[in-house]
Automatic annotation (TrEMBL):
Family: Belongs to the glycosyl hydrolase 5 (cellulase A) family.
Domain DUF7910: 56-192
Annotated signal sequence range: 1-22
Domain Glycoside hydrolase family, chain residue ranges per copy: 214-477
Keyword terms of this UniProt record: Glycosidase, Hydrolase, Signal
Pfam families for the chain: Cellulase, DUF7910
Superkingdom of origin organism: Eukaryota
GO terms, molecular function: actin filament binding; hydrolase activity, hydrolyzing O-glycosyl compounds
Protein name per Swiss-Prot or TrEMBL: Mannan endo-1,4-beta-mannosidase
SUPFAM superfamilies in UniProt: (Trans)glycosidases (SSF51445), Actin-crosslinking proteins (SSF50405)
Gene Ontology BP annotations: actin filament bundle assembly; cell migration; establishment or maintenance of cell polarity; polysaccharide catabolic process
GO terms under cellular component: actin cytoskeleton; cytoplasm
Length: 499
């Protein structure tokens, strides 16, 4: 009934390609799907070994470091957070004392400070953070001590070492070479945060090795066998995270590597062969919508905004044009997990409208809008969605990333699913808005003392509660080194049975 009405509606639009009407005719909702996480958008925590061949793999793009002058016992600091000189007078370190690496190669880096300027050299070798972009003169070699790699000296582009002459005078003019603690050029480096996304792995391996490493990964991480396994174990769709660079295949801008669209082609071929559907999920957008590893960010700053809308719509248009006619296409998700308030409602609403229109030029497949992470109401896009057809809202549910869940007992975590999650989801479903999709959830939760039986009950609770979601759900993820995050492992070990 719904489908007939829809067909009628779209037949009235002359530019619409009639060949793609067929694709959603056999789409049985709700979908029971699994995410193919860490396949076409790298997330190092899910498979750390993929980074093992990188030299200085602890110094990737976006790594946040702090430098303690061993002589002064004070931290280097971008005074005022940036825009002026570097000083060495802080007894403890937080934001202004933290430098984000941009990796030039295994030992040369730019340093980006709190307010985003880059560290470089001023008059008489004075070290300052005033540059808006990295230049050659803003490149520093991190020289690590043999056997004590976090004892470092920083060689500036003039060939001389950076020294903390005094608490207020940091210059790049030192010619000595000792590792003694009294040496003003010696620092104790602390790594306070790391990123392991697509930017980090491709730039880490560099242009000579990255293409081969990524190709091996794409060919081996997900194979036809996996689609066979998924389809025979009760799954009927995959949600495939992709990055913006896919639209420039086979020659994406460095450091990204060409070939991910061929891998996505394979996903369609295999899905169609095993009677499954594909949800394409634009997971990483240029300039990052949330600062997370999986947004493709270089340094963790969340910078996606108005000025990125056009180029992001172009990525959606590429995907819709390339896959719009495929029988396996179930939906295109316009952007994964935009984070409020940085990703503003206005910018997103404008983007969602334009992205939806771009999809509709090529296909009647469902269009998925993500609810924003952070302090935002998942219904905030419902009024926008009411002007759209075949549209879905995606909400992600994790009993993780908050002390709230780790301080709850196992039973309280399970009750939270049956009470809070169920009522939240019920409210969305009954709001008479778009279809509802729980696009990410997992069997792991905020207790590390749960028993096998507990994990089974926790998974059961979520299947019970998310089952009624009108578009369906997708487990995060298919494959992961942490067992409870891997649906493959959960099925093979009888924690979850979908048949
Ligand atoms: C790394 O980059 C620096 C600065 O551009 C350059 O001088 C050096 O030769 C490079 N090293 C390698 C191994 O490419």
């Amino acid at each position: 009934m719904v489908y007939l009405a829809f067909l009628l509606f779209f037949n009235l639009i002359p530019c619409f390609p009639s060949s793609s009407h067929a694709q959603n005719a056999n789409l049985n909702l709700p979908l029971r799907a699994v995410n193919l996480g860490n396949w076409l958008v790298t997330e190092g925590w899910m498979q750390p070994s993929r980074f093992d061949g990188i030299v200085n793999k602890d110094l990737l793009d976006g790594t946040q470091v702090q430098f303690l002058s061993t002589r002064l016992n004070k931290y280097l600091c971008a005074e005022s957070g940036g825009g002026t000189i570097i000083v060495a007078n802080r007894a403890s370190a937080s934001g202004w004392e933290t430098f984000r690496l941009w990796r030039v190669n295994a030992s040369y880096f730019n340093f980006r400070v709190f307010f985003k300027q880059f560290v470089g050299l001023g008059n008489q070798g004075v070290v300052q953070a005033v540059l808006n972009g990295p230049t050659n003169s803003a490149t520093f070699e991190i020289v690590r001590r043999n056997g004590d790699p976090n004892k470092v000296r920083l060689r500036a582009s003039n060939g001389l070492f950076l020294q903390a002459q005094s608490e207020t005078r940091v210059t790049a003019d030192y010619r000595g070479s000792s590792w003694d603690d009294w040496d003003p050029s010696v620092f104790r480096m602390t790594i306070v945060n790391t990123l392991q996304g697509e930017y980090q792995i491709t730039n880490g391996y560099g242009p000579d090795r990255a293409p081969q490493v990524m190709q091996v990964h794409w060919n081996s991480y997900i194979t036809e066998q996996d689609f066979n396994f998924m389809s025979s174990n009760g799954l009927d769709a995959v949600r495939v995270p992709v990055g913006w660079w896919i639209a420039q295949d086979p020659n994406p801008p460095r450091p990204f590597v060409g070939g991910s669209s061929r891998a996505l082609d394979n996903a369609f071929t295999w899905a169609e062969k095993y009677g499954m559907k594909v949800i394409i999920d634009l997971h990483a957008v240029k300039d990052s919508q949330n600062g997370n590893d999986h947004s493709g960010t270089r340094d963790g700053f969340q910078e996606w905004g108005d000025s990125n809308i056009g180029e992001t719509v172009a990525v959606i248009e590429y995907l819709a044009a390339r896959y719009g006619g495929r029988l396996g296409l179930a939906a295109i998700e316009l952007m994964n997990e935009p984070l409020a308030p940085g990703a503003t409602f206005d910018a997103l609403a404008k983007y969602y409208r334009a992205g939806y229109d771009a999809v509709r030029k090529h296909t009647d497949a469902y269009v998925i809008l993500s609810a924003r992470l952070g302090p935002a109401d998942p219904q905030e896009f419902f009024s926008l969605a009411s002007s759209m057809n075949r549209v879905v809202i995606d909400v992600h549910n994790y009993n993780l990333f908050s002390d709230m869940f780790s301080s709850m007992s196992v039973q309280q975590n399970i009750d939270y699913i049956y009470n809070q999650r169920a009522s939240d989801l019920g409210r969305l479903i009954s709001a008479n808005g778009p279809r509802v999709f729980v696009g990410e959830w997992t069997g792991e939760f905020g207790r590390n003392d749960a028993s096998t039986e507990d994990y089974k009950r926790f998974a059961r609770a979520q299947l019970d509660v998310y089952g009624p979601a009108t578009f369906g759900w997708a487990y995060w993820t298919y494959k992961c080194v942490y067992n409870h995050w891997s649906l493959k492992w959960m099925i093979e070990n009888n924690y979850i049975n979908l048949n």
